Amino acid sequence: MNEKILYGYTGLFDTPDEIIEAAEKVSAEGFEKYDVHTPYPVHGMDSAMKLKPSKLPYIALVIGLSAMVTMFIFMYWMTSIDYPVIVGGKPFFSFPAWVPVLFEITVLSASIGTVVAMIAVFFKFPNLSHPLHDTDFMKSVSSDKYGISIEAVDSRFNEDYVRSFLSSIGAKEISPVYWDDEEVTFKNTVLKPKFLTFLIVVGLAVSGTTYFTLNKLMFMVPFNWMREQEKYIPQEISTFFEDGFSMRTPVKGSVALGNIPYRFSGDPEGAGEALVNPLAVTKENLELGKEKFDIYCSPCHGYFGEGDSRLKGQFPNPPSFHSEKVRNWSDGRIYAVLMDGQNVMPSYSSQLDRAERWAVILYMRALQRSLNAKESDLK
Amino acid sequence: MSSSEKVIEYSKKELPPVFGKLGIVLLVIGIVLSVLAYLSDPVRSAFNNVILLEFLTSIGLGALFLVALEHLAGAVWSTPFRRVFELISSVLLILPIVALPVYFHAHDIFHWTHADVVATDEILSHKAPYLNMTFFTIRIVAYFLLWNIFYWLLTGKSRKQDSTKDQKTTKTNAKIAAIFMPVFAITITFSSIDWMMSLEPHWFSTIFGVYYFAGTVIASLAVGTFVVIWLNEKGLLVNGIGKDHYYSLGALLFAFINFWAYIAFSQFLLIWYANLPEETYWFLQRWEGPWMIVSILFIVVHFAVPYFALLSQPSKMDPKRLKIMSVWIVLAHIFDLFWIVMPTHSPDGVLFGWIEIGFIILAIGIIITVFNLKSKDSNLVAIGDPKLQRGIDFRL
Amino acid sequence: MSSGVIDYTKEFSVIEGKPSLRSIDDLISKPLDTKPDKKYYIALSITLTMLMIGAVGLLASFYYGTGLWGNNNPVGWGLPIVNFVFWVGIGHAGTLISAILFLLRQKWRNGIARFAEGMTIFAVMTAGIFPAIHTGRPWLDGYLFPYPNQHALWVNFNSPLLWDVFAVSTYFTVSFIFWYVGLIPDFAILRDRTKNKLKKIIYSVTSLGWRGSNRHWQHYEMVYLVLAGFATPLVLSVHTIVSFDFAVAVLPGWHTTIFPPYFVAGAVFSGFAMVQNVLIFIRRIFNYEHIITLDTLEKMNKIILLTGMIVGYAYAMEFFMAWYSGVQAETFAFINRAFGPYAWAYWIMFSCNVLFPQFFWIKKLRRSIPFMFIIAVLVNVGMWFERFVITVTSLSRDYLPSSWAYFTPTITDFSLLIGSFGFFFTFLLLFTKTLPVVSIAEVKAVVDGAQPTHKDH
Fold first, then answer.
1. What does pTM read for this prediction?
2. For residues B149 and B156, what is the distance between their CA atoms, to the nearest angstrom?
3. A114: nearest CA in chain C?
4. Which of A324, B34, B268, C18 suits C372 as a labelling partner, its CA being 20 to 30 A distant?
5. Burial class (CB in 10 A: 0-12, 13-18, 19+), C401
6. How far, in Å, CA of A318 to CA of A325, rounded?
7. What is the ipTM of this complex?
8. Do the beta carbons of residue A115 and residue C223 sit within 8 Å?
9. Residues of C with CB below 8 A from B181's CB?
């Protein structure tokens, strides 16, 4: 082991009053490269050491303001130039609504910036290889003592002089501090291939992760069985059928489940002869018929089938159900009107299903009977 | 800690006679101008009188609030000049006189006093149980009574302590202050609703009381800061008040400027964003025609200038800058009240002439004269307060 | 100082009994140096069980979708938003203690600041879960940040929900930085006293090489001041923006201008109650009674009383203005709150937040630990219900009477609520064993005799 290089001299004090006094004396003596070490900030130490006020608030101000201006320009560009969208009837440039975000960004950048500036620029941290670390001096001042260190690089430094000076101002446990070998021989290893490789790996990993996150991960849907089911969606290409269509035309003559084909389209008289109302005259059927009649038929035909439309002349009034002609129609003939429509009346085959159609006809019959009752009905 | 053997050196000194004379001169000019104003344009004068009344309420009540706050928080740094704030709060005593002209012109400025309008207006007749002359009178009398009671309680005890030096008084004061706080919150809210919000009887905003409170604290703090620094430079307070105390005052001023801006912005943003016609018209009135420039100027005067002037740490300690900013902020508060009150009177144009200036002169004259008269028979420092030495020793 | 006549000429001790600086080191780092005991494991297993209940609820919500929650038309914001606002509110006390009370130079804060800041961070983390899962498809939350995405679309800067994203993430980041900056000197102290090699390495790295140098302290204190200066408006802005979520809407009961300060006061109110609750245990278990003194707890109770009254003021103003405004829907919303189907929730809220804290006017009750504990628990119950009342009553009775409905939370909702408590307290328990829960350096600075006497003045 070679001759150790001296870092400086340290001395300890017991009370905050002593350390303030000592600091005043050290700075009055003309030392510049000295420092005071305390377990907590001692009030009045800055003026005792004649330190200039910290410049950090200005850094905070500059970073905060520039972040705010940048964000403002950014927001203006996004909302007013790049992709203007009207939101809530507000103008593109709706400054009051931006204030919260501007404020947050200002605070965020200024806080991070100030702390990073303090740690990296003002403290030159992280610095784990300072000679004072791991000394008894350090252990004392981080717990309950107050210490002064005078560095060897100070222009007024002289071992004997400093030692006697420290004892003259009342310091205890005055001791020299030496640089460790590793700390002295430490070389900057940034350009070593190992470190460069490491940097490249980190760079690749970061950019890869970013790429993966933004281009792949964002498109991965974790629970997708609702969206992607095992069925063909319209227009999808089929790999099963030779023609490549997933949509098939039905085989000729095929009938949908439950569907009873209507054979009398365009032939109302035929329907009138062939079809018979399958429903029995029950209360339920009549009530169903009334419900459907009131919904679908009554707007034009009126609640009682008298053709008194509620549409106030917007549509020609239909004839009454109570005419001789309609009363003498068979149920099947009326059924044909419901299926095909008549004159301006459109088909109601899609609004009413088969049972409902017949139920409506039952109800119509009841209406007709109400105005032209037979004698037998009175009994 | 505090060295009890140290004796606080304080002997009562008179304020410089120039001060009193200045007050009298301003008061006389103010009274003459305002009387002339009432003769030439009573309605406009009544509106200005509302500004005057609310401004003096701000100063007096705000100072009393700050006194109570010190008692409640057990603060020591402000003890050396608490008496100054107590003296400023004596403005509360003459508030009823200032309110009288407005009260007699209520029919000219308060829309809701017109029975025929109220009868045909559904919303106003809905509000009639609150907005009617009888209840209004009861309320304002109650405010003045409560404020005066607490003024006497808080300042009287403190003044007695000068001779008794009784430690118990400090504790009693803290208790009174605690009771004062809710009373203060309710009275300041409803008085601001009565005097200012009801000028536009259709308009409403739940934060209005808080908004006025924020302005109140800034204004009274600014007056206090100015007086404290001025008295201290003249050597009329105790020795030892210095940069650390100034910094505290400046920081508080800065904090409340931000608080005011926060409240003002919250009120504006919510109304602007929701865009409900029954609320927005109040801001539209202040954002259309000539009032728009006034509103922009208002933001600059009331927020931007004081904010940047007091932002840095050294500037909060600089007595010269603090004095300038105090005056600025006091004027800004008058501006604030002007901005609230006057658009109701003249929505189509900004009226600012000799009448307005006359009332501002009157306001300043009243404050100076009342302070001068009140300080004649009282110490300028609460020398009996046990916290005084600690307050003088206060360091950041 | 506990009784009798107070001597106002002397500065009050913040730390009782003038302990030596070294004993403070020993006491505060003791939980880090000793192995956890049985009670700790019992507590941890309870919180972990709660966390697991929440995890089950969360997984079920992911698997089956958010239809498991009570949210439905018209109450689209159910318990998740209630929980979010509640937890963000809990976080506010920490920043108030560490930043605002620091700016006001309240020395008693030094003993509780670290812990409260920790609670802030954990509470904000807990709160952050809820809006994230409330989006329904949390894996797409990345779109909340304005980055040039494949849709070529930008986020909507006019939306208060986006302001929330910025506010809460900024709040978390700044709180975390503030916390870490405060921890640096403490890490250095731990580094210098530990004998364990691994701990030494960890503490060396985390303390960054701190040497207690006054040339550093000078900047450090300045940065602490600057950060406090930033954190103070930040903490106001966060709950203000949360209140904007409601108040910018035109829904009756939501749109009222007092919401920003009212929400902030409410947040501080509930946060202080939570901090006080937990501190009562901490000071007892770790023997910190002389550092976190009864006086400190009493001061916290005073702040609870004060903020409780601000909240009460806001309730009153809302009610008065609802009537004064003459707007029918607004008046109805408030009558409905107090006397409608959710009257039970309203009166729980009102009594817990406004009535019960009034007991703190009495000094004896303010200084009684069991009593203050109960009141603070009630305050937190009340504040949870406040958010429930605001969110649910207004939504369940909107402008369209045909869509009115009664909101009933489901078992999944409750499991998430329980889980959030488990999440929060698990972190808190881990924190007590891994980091110094009281700031060593800050406490040393306020021990009697720790500061020079300034004889020359």
1. 0.85
2. 10
3. C223
4. C18
5. exposed
6. 14
7. 0.93
8. yes
9. 306, 309
